[in-house]
């Protein structure tokens, strides 16, 4: 089995094995963790397995041609979108951020392009109106696991038929960058609420105020179709147990779950008991609002 190198995690940033590595080791499956797949020695190790197919799920490294051709039936990818929409690194987050109401799984034959290979099967899954990237990820993972088993059974039976991806409707799910995490209050409230859901659990969205150096993290919010009475976007309209309401370019955003620097995620009432915010204060927007515009 191939998996990425152990990654630092937790407060101590100690190297930790991924769950899939732990499970493989428990089952006695050999694990290979190369830094790159372009090393001829690594490619030789993969070829020596003499696999029928290589199954790829959220691997995160570019597969060179030598690896794509190392198995008799090539590499088959479990991709968390309905291709050709949201090719690329962050399909789950970008779908929610863009306000999509459906996602899904595509089982695809990999080629040298970025998620451009022929589709072997696809299945749609609705995105709930308050669903986060975390919950959608888990539901898609369950669906993908079932679909890859079906695909392998069809492959063995010789009934798996590849279909070329449509040329229309192609979008790219770029990797999320830190510069995107600060909210642009000039956007409509519903787009900001979508972004908060999309960036939960990683990397989270940030709120900045002039009076504090470190950002507050916002984990849950809801768009309200309320007038902002001409207030400048980012202005706190109401702050209390009954709600923390902030003016947006259109509508109002109700902040529901926040986290102060060094703290933990808290419901609004608990957060405000340890971090007072007053009506009339203002959250800042990023210096370049265009950098925070969601994809479409």
Count of distinct structural domains: 2
Average pLDDT, rounded to a whole number, is 94
Name the assembly state.
Answer: single chain
Relative helix content: 10-25%
Number of strands: 15
CATH superfamily of the largest domain: Formyl transferase, N-terminal domain
Shape: elongated
End-to-end Cα distance, whole Å, is: 36 Å
Strand content: 15-25%
Radius of gyration: 22 Å
* Stretches with pLDDT under 50, minimum 5 residues: none
Biggest sheet features: 7 strands, antiparallel
Number of contiguous helices = 7
Please state the structural category. alpha+beta
Give the CATH architecture of the largest domain: 3-Layer(aba) Sandwich
How do the helices and strands follow one another from N- to C-terminus? EEHHEHEEHEEHEHEEEEEEHE
- Can you identify the CATH class of the largest domain? Alpha Beta
Query: What is the CATH topology descriptor of the largest domain?
Result: Rossmann fold
Topology:
Layout lengths: L6 E3 L4 E3 L2 H8 L13 H9 L5 E3 L8 H4 L6 E5 L7 E2 L2 H7 L4 E8 L9 E8 L6 H25 L14 E2 L15 H10 L6 E5 L6 E9 L11 E5 L2 E5 L4 E8 L6 E2 H7 L8 E2 L12
Parallel strand pairs: 3-4, 5-8
Antiparallel strand pairs: 1-2, 4-6, 6-7, 9-10, 9-15, 10-13, 11-12, 12-13, 13-14
Helix pairs in contact: 4-6
Give an overview in words.
- The protein is α+β, with helices and mostly antiparallel strands and 296 residues long.
- The protein has 2 domains: 140 residues, Rossmann fold (3-Layer(aba) Sandwich); 115 residues, Roll (Methionyl-tRNA Fmet Formyltransferase, Chain A, domain 2), CATH 3.10.25.
- The protein is built from 7 helices and 15 strands.
- The strands form 4 sheets. Strands 9, 10, 11, 12, 13, 14 and 15 form a 7-stranded antiparallel sheet that branches. A 4-stranded mixed sheet has the order 3-4-6-7. It has a two-stranded antiparallel sheet with strand order 1-2.
- Helix 4 packs antiparallel against helix 6.
- The longest helix is centred in the middle third of the chain and has 25 residues.
- It is elongated.
- The two termini are 36 Å apart.
- The model has no long low-confidence stretch (mean pLDDT 94).
């Amino acid at each position: 089995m191939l998996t990425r190198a152990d990654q630092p995690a937790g407060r101590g940033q100690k190297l930790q094995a991924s769950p899939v590595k732990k499970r493989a080791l428990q089952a006695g499956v050999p694990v290979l963790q190369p830094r790159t797949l372009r090393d001829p020695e690594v490619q030789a190790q993969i070829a020596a397995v003499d696999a029928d197919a290589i199954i790829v799920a959220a691997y995160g490294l570019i597969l060179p041609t030598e690896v794509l051709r190392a198995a008799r039936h090539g590499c088959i990818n479990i991709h968390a979108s309905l291709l050709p929409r949201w090719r690329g690194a962050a399909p789950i987050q970008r779908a929610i951020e863009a306000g999509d109401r459906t996602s899904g799984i595509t089982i695809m034959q990999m080629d040298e392009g970025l998620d451009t290979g022929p589709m072997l099967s696809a299945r749609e899954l609705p995105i709930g109106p308050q669903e986060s990237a975390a919950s959608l990820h888990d539901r898609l993972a369950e669906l993908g696991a079932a679909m890859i088993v079906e695909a392998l059974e069809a492959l063995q039976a010789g009934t798996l038929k590849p279909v070329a991806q449509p040329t229309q409707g192609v979008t790219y799910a770029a990797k999320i960058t830190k510069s995107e995490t600060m909210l642009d209050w000039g956007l409509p409230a519903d787009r900001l609420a979508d972004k908060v859901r999309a960036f939960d659990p990683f990397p989270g969205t940030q709120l900045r105020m002039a009076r504090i150096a470190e950002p507050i993290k916002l984990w849950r919010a809801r768009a309200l179709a309320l007038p902002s009475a001409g207030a400048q976007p980012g202005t706190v309209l109401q702050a209390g147990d009954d709600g923390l309401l902030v003016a947006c370019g259109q509508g109002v955003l109700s902040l529901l779950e926040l986290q102060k620097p060094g703290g933990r995620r808290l419901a609004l009432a608990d957060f405000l008991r340890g971090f007072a915010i007053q009506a009339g204060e203002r959250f800042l927007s990023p210096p370049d609002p265009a950098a925070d515009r969601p994809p479409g």
